[in-house]
Amino acid sequence: MAQYNCSSLGLPATTPDQLGWNASKALGNVSADDMEDMCLSRSQYLEKFLGFRRSPMFLPVCITFLIIFIVGVLGNMLTCTVILCNKVMRTPTNYYLFSLAVSDLLVLLLGMPLELYEMWSNYPFLFGAGGCYFKTFLFETVCFASILIVTALSVERYIAVIHPLKVKHVATHAHAKHVILTLWAMSMACAVPNTSLHGVAVLGPRFGSQFPESAICTIVKPRWMYNLIIQVTTLVFFLLPMLTITGLYLRIGLQLRMKRGMQGVGAGPGFGPDSHGSVHRQQQTARHRQVTKMLCVLVIVFGICWAPFHIDRLMWSFINSWTGHHHLVFEYVHIVSGVFFYLSSAVNPILYSLMSTRFREMFRQVTCRFGPCSGHLRRLTFRSTQLTLRSTVNEKPQHNGRITPDREEQNVYVDSHNQPVYANTSPD
Known about the structure:
Layout: H1 32-38, H2 42-50, H3 58-85, H4 92-120, H5 128-162, H6 167-170, H7 173-196, E1 198-201, E2 216-219, H8 223-266, H9 273-318, H10 324-355, H11 357-370, E3 378-380, H12 382-389, H13 405-408, E4 411-414, E5 420-423
Antiparallel strand pairs: 1-2, 3-4, 4-5
GO molecular function: neuromedin U receptor activity
Subcellular location: Cell membrane
Function: Receptor for the neuromedin-U and neuromedin-S neuropeptides.
């Protein structure tokens, strides 16, 4: 083969043997395409068939991922700490949010480093078949568990608002734990089919040379099997749940609006137990409205963040004949879907803090406990202290059915022994 010279193709005047190919072992005549490939260096040959070893977008994506990682890990760890360390926060609804935070932490702590490593060095894949299975299984399990948990959370909220008499039997701690464990088991089982299609593949031998440095984690089974699984899972684990959740929250919104209208018609001055019951119902409806609003925004953000991920998968499964334009579009879709995928794991604690007074106060307590606080006493709002100390000042009628204004306007502090200290407020 040494008689072939790459200069005839407009390349430097070298022979395939000088470029590292064992051309003397190549059998038969070679075509022009083969000759062109033989005139490439090994790195150029790998780049031709596998793409860039390092993504051109690595630096901006790495900076974006780093910001998401810091915010997401701190926020989700804070969420888990708040729910675990405060008994008042251990509600069935918060158990679902705790499970969602654990799912997000798995993605950020295990999935993101693998993703960044692949962008830094797309090949060879150094973790073997076991690492490939783990990576695929992790992403599939988290994908399924997240949407199932959000759906279960929406159903729980629907029952609490639409069927309040049934909530005592459904929205219990034991029931929530059972549902969460079942959903995780279902997610793991449903992740197995796609995981089984993946493995480590290398470029086949050519020109008498092997390419162990071309190892990548990819699909090793027939492509049609992968396409079918992706299309079915997108339908079952994204489109149908999102349509169901949308219907549930529309029904919840109509119910809360109707209750608000009825309260407005029936509202009026009054005293005694009936008046207290009316106030309690209004407070309960207001709490339902605040929690539902927060969860509704969570679902909307969830859908926006996960939609590019499923578009990425569907695009890969539907396109059979790839062109240069397809590859270019898919590269950008893949990067955008990755950013939004990880963003969904970091945004939930921000939503809790912005939209939930209870979470916001609990976050403040935890950060104050581990960080500097002004003075020996930590000032809390009365609402937060009511939640943590189980005060019933605003829940029980006093002085002929009315709350004493002076008591309601008191500030509450907590000293170093977690004892409440009351102080009257006065305008500055």
